[in-house]
Amino acid sequence: MKKAGLIGCGYMGTMHANCYKALGDKVQVVAVADLRAENAKEIADMFGATIYNDAESLIKNADVDFVDICLPTYLHEKYAVMAMRKDFDVFVEKPLCRTKEEAQNLVKVQEETGKTVQVGQVIRFWDEYVWLKDVKEKGTYGKVINGTFKRLSPRPEWAWEGWLHDGEKSGGMALDLHVHDIDYIRYLMGEPKAVKAVGIEEKAGLTEHIITTYIYDDAVLSAEGCWNYPANFRFTMAFCVRFEKATVYHDAGAGEFIVYPADGEPFTPTIDKVDIGTAGSGNISSLGGYYNELEYFVNLLENPSMPQIASLKEGARSVELALDGIEKSIKR
Ligand SMILES: NC(=O)c1ccc[n+]([C@@H]2O[C@H](COP(=O)([O-])OP(=O)(O)OC[C@H]3O[C@@H](n4cnc5c(N)ncnc54)[C@H](O)[C@@H]3O)[C@@H](O)[C@H]2O)c1
Q1: pLDDT mean across residues, the chain
Q2: How confident is the model at residue 277 (pLDDT cuts 50, 70, 90)?
Q3: In the CATH scheme, what is the code of domain 123-277+310-331?
Q4: What's the CA-to-centroid distance between 7 and ligand 1, angstroms?
Q5: CA 297, CA 282: separation in Å to the nearest integer?
Q6: How far is the CA of 162 from the centre of ligand 1 (A)?
Q7: Fewer beta carbons under 10 A from the terminal one: N or C of the chain?
Q8: What residues line ligand 1, using a CB cutoff of 6 Å?
Q9: Are strands 50-52 and 27-33 parallel, antiparallel or unpaired?
């Protein structure tokens, strides 16, 4: 049983707390921290955990095996470094951090300390995307020829003090939301030969719509992200990937997951999903992928020989690629 310290009890901290509850005996949340006392208390009461007023006091004083950092992005590096130096393993939400320099420093500190760090690139653990990676690796339908990935959302309005809409703090949509798909494409296909990105910076420092294209020797994949749709727009998380022998289509909001074989009838693959329900009020409330990634992380701490699926270095590379795309955005 691992002892966890949960830092940041907002939208994502609440998601993670519910996953830890569902993980049962594997993990015990013994410490929680948030500047907002009422948020910290709500989660502490779920576990009988000790409350700390802020991230630093938890890291300095709590007796834990790992910390889970669910803080705004611009705070990730500071507290992940502090935690590794305190000899704690770390789970840190995506995007790994706000800048390339922070990413490089995190890699350096991890190499120095040898701590286990997993980044919350949750799409690598999302059931339909896990299935897609599996059939690609097995060659079930031959090679990938092309693919499109989408993540389109109303403006996320839940963030503490509006930090998501401050480009300095969050990097805006192109780092915060779009990083999911650019990270996943590289996970699926490997390092591309070239990357092209074009986005629109609607307000200073905020690229609100972006399309990134990954070019391989024999395939082209693209991802589109935007979070400036109307409040009643249905959150869209979707992909369409064409293999040599089949096309796979998924739209989470529409509940569609369909394989179109080159010869044969379309069908929906059966996936064994963990159903632990929903939590929170943001754009994604299903806990499945979050549960999968946290279960994997806790198992990784018990069995360090397991392959790392979402390592710190992988998270660092995805931050670099997202920031490169933002630099190329057209200014309005
Ligand atoms: N994986 C996903 O699908 C996903 C979805 C949403 C957010 N996120 C990521 O999770 C992270 C957190 O986002 P969120 O939506 O939960 O934000 P949020 O604003 O809902 O929560 C952040 C919390 O941190 C607390 N906080 C701020 N400074 C603190 C400090 N020094 N010490 C202790 N607590 C402090 C705030 O009071 C707030 O409760 C971000 O990096 C975000 O990008 C990931």
Answers
A1: 94
A2: low
A3: 3.30.360.10
A4: 9
A5: 24
A6: 11
A7: C
A8: 7-13, 33-36, 39, 54-55, 70-73, 75, 93-94, 120, 122, 158-160, 176, 284
A9: parallel
- Strand, helix or coil at 193? coil
Q: Look at the block and give the residue holding tokens 């897609």.
A: 132
Distance 34 CA to ligand 1 centre (A): 10
Q: Which atom of ligand 1 is nearest to the CA of 156?
A: 15
Claim: this prediction has a pTM higher than 0.70: yes
Cα 175 from Cα 180, distance rounded (Å): 9
Residue 269 near residue 256, CB atoms below 8 Å: no
CA distance 9 to 6: 7
- Alpha-carbon distance of 121 to 178, in angstroms, equals 11
Would you kindly state where each structural domain of the chain is located, as residue ranges? 2-121, 123-277+310-331
- State the distance from the centre of ligand 1 to the C-alpha of 285, rounded, in angstroms: 15
Which atom of ligand 1 is closest in space to residue 12's alpha carbon?
A: 16
Q: Is the peptide bond before 307 cis (omega within 30 degrees of 0)?
A: no
pLDDT at 328: 80
* Fold adopted by 2-121: Rossmann fold (3.40.50)
User: Which of the two residues, 205 and 162, has the higher pLDDT score?
Assistant: 162
- Ligand 1 centroid, distance to 115 Cα (angstroms): 22
Helix/strand/coil for 15: helix
Ligand 1 center to 275 CA (angstroms): 24
Pocket perturbation via mutation, ligand 1, pick of 7, 54, 71 by most ligand atoms within 8 A of CB: 71
Protein residue with least CA distance to atom 40, ligand 1: 72
Atom of ligand 1 nearest to the CA of 8: 24
Q: Measured between alpha carbons, how far is 120 from 112 in angstroms, rounded to an integer?
A: 22
- The span from the CA of 122 to the CA of 183, in Å, is 10
Q: What is the mean pLDDT of residues 155-159?
A: 90
Q: Write out the E strands in the chain.
A: 2-7, 27-33, 50-52, 66-69, 89-93, 117-120, 144-154, 194-203, 206-215, 220-229, 236-243, 246-251, 256-261, 330-331
Over residues 181-203, mean pLDDT: 93
Looking at residue 332, its pLDDT comes to 62
